[in-house]
Amino acid sequence: MVGVELPKARQVYLVLRERIANGGLNAGDTLPGEQALAGEHNVSRVTVRRALAELEREGLIDRRRGAGTFIALQNAVKPVVADLADVLSNLIAMGRSTDVRLLAFSYQDAPAMVADALRLVKGERVQRSVRVRIVDGEPFSYLTTHVPERIGVTYTEPELASKPLLALLERSGVSVDRATQEISAVLASPEAAAALNVDIGSALIALTRVVYDGKGRGVEHLHALYRPDRYAFRMDLARTGRNGGRRWSPVENGHAEAGTTKGSETQAGNAREERGKRR
Amino acid sequence: MVGVELPKARQVYLVLRERIANGGLNAGDTLPGEQALAGEHNVSRVTVRRALAELEREGLIDRRRGAGTFIALQNAVKPVVADLADVLSNLIAMGRSTDVRLLAFSYQDAPAMVADALRLVKGERVQRSVRVRIVDGEPFSYLTTHVPERIGVTYTEPELASKPLLALLERSGVSVDRATQEISAVLASPEAAAALNVDIGSALIALTRVVYDGKGRGVEHLHALYRPDRYAFRMDLARTGRNGGRRWSPVENGHAEAGTTKGSETQAGNAREERGKRR
DNA sequence: TTTAATTGTCTACATTATAATACAACATGA
DNA sequence: TCATGTTGTATTATAATGTAGACAATTAAA
Questions:
Q1: pLDDT for B245-267, tens place per residue?
Q2: Among A15, A60, A94, A164, which one is least packed by beta carbons within 10 Å?
Q3: What φ, ψ does residue B102 adopt, rounded to 5°?
Q4: Closest Cα of chain B to A67: distance in Å?
């Protein structure tokens, strides 16, 4: 049973990061001393120091010998905030350069989950592709798509790497009509972590979208993973008329806000690259 | 720099769990032998066995001596899928029993992030509360709310533990009008992990909602953490008219589907409780 | 200046994780 | 029955991680 626990240094790191982000600690505040932190968390000072070193490397804190440890001034690297409907359009509208790398492309039997969602007969063949979308030189989404073979054959591998999948589907005569999507959270698997340049086991936003044509047949199964530090789903809600109903309705928000802070981005970006290389 | 890495056993565990969930492995399939897995992942067989032991404890696989390791039949404990607008209403509509525990309640200076979102003067006092919502006996959301002091004083601590916050706000004359919410993913901090009965460092869905009154003043800042195995945000989208626009519009879905499988829930629930107790 | 508190550094040791190997117990199919 | 491959168990060795304590360097305040 032992062996799958998190190292203590990482636990302390997590707790402190949480306190800095949401725990009511403001920029410039003084953190408790290493000795005190060691006591609070029931670990040795050396372990606390490892956690603090990681936080310092990410630019969240400043440590000054003799003085103490302080919360860094511009610690919040705000993610790009975009509407839930169409990520790509929003990014382009923000004037960002996007690029795609095709990591895998094959035809195979449909996994049970996909066959179920697309309403295929079990084992029907599908086209599977894995792509990484790169925005402004940094990877930020890891896309796994499954498309029924009969539709997949209407476009080629290089086309998939250069054009949006939805456009390819429409070109082949499919009427893209309706979709269902779910948002969840997962830990980064080694493959996804490598592609997105984050640590294995870090948190990722998971989005699963199933697209149907006019007749209700599934035409695309998309499983997307996003870096939460680079992206967040945002929606505006308005209270629905009936009083006491206590319900919200989604509101079309004209354009998404670009939320990435200029100054801090480069710094955090570099720190992250180091982290990725260290193995 | 060392000390915050994930143990190899946990990395292998993550990979295998990912493959079981989304990697095209179906129920009943045979996993590669421990020796083979050790080779694939460049770790020793002992390490692979630790990862497998964890998966077995969670009911995802069956191991039979002499025979092999198999994917458990009913492994997919589907989360409760609900609409993004109003979680609580959906749960009640599903006929589920919900309960609330109040973990913290205090008045304090507003953290920078909250003050910013609610458009308060920095350091203005706010009421902070931490609640855990329990559905069908299992904790599934961890809510941290900040409300401006002038509004917070209109209700009492026990009221907060028994009535929805939005109802309390309206009772005090606040016109709840508009909200913005963002969905992201975070790792479970020790506090959240303990409250939600999951492992430290597991992935959680993070939702931040800021509610405004008719005059655009912030009246509530909600930070919610959900267990992804118990919950997922779902939305239905329809293609917007203009052809080539390639945009989606949210669709009101009348009622959310209850997605929890009866049989598997108890089993997985028990496994999880064990996990929570082991420390 | 003095004093106390802080971070930085170092050493020695204990505990835990991982690796490599061998062998037993069991299942399966030839 | 037998050969083969599997999981279960044990042993040993090495590496990684955590602990404890002491001391130096620096800061800030008394």
A1: 567 777 765 444 434 333 333 33
A2: A164
A3: -95, 115
A4: 22
